[in-house]
Amino acid sequence: MSEPNFADLLASPENPDNVWYPCSCHCGATSFKILHEPLESSAPKPAPVLKCNCSICVKNGYLLIYAFRDQIEYTHGWDALRNYRFASKTWDHKFCGVCGTSVGIDFLGIHPAGNIIAINGVLAENVHELAELSEEAARKIYRLNQVVSMLVDECDKRFVK
Asked: Is the CB of residue 69 less than 8 Å from the CB of residue 113?
């Protein structure tokens, strides 16, 4: 089996099977839609979501859908989201300031896969069962995230004052 990478999680913008998935927080203060390959586990070739095993993703119950920034259209409330940063403090974990729903992770353009955002897949409306990556694949991607975070941390220590 080949090494998993973020390209496997990103929907190709040209894929004719892409679907717009409406998403919202619990209270509806934030809503948006995401263009992605079919997410339902019943689809012929469902796009995998990542169940990350880092501490914050486990606490938030994330099943992450990765998308390029231009594959997300905001209806309302995106600017009103609150941010939380921990560890390397380089990525914004977004949550609704009204109901507290964990919305996703904004990598702020520094992710090696490109200008991407990870959205909590459980926010997608009318998607009842998501196809998860295997645990082995998730562990490898988690390790990649750790390396990226350490590199950003090191750069911050050396060059940002």
From this structure: no
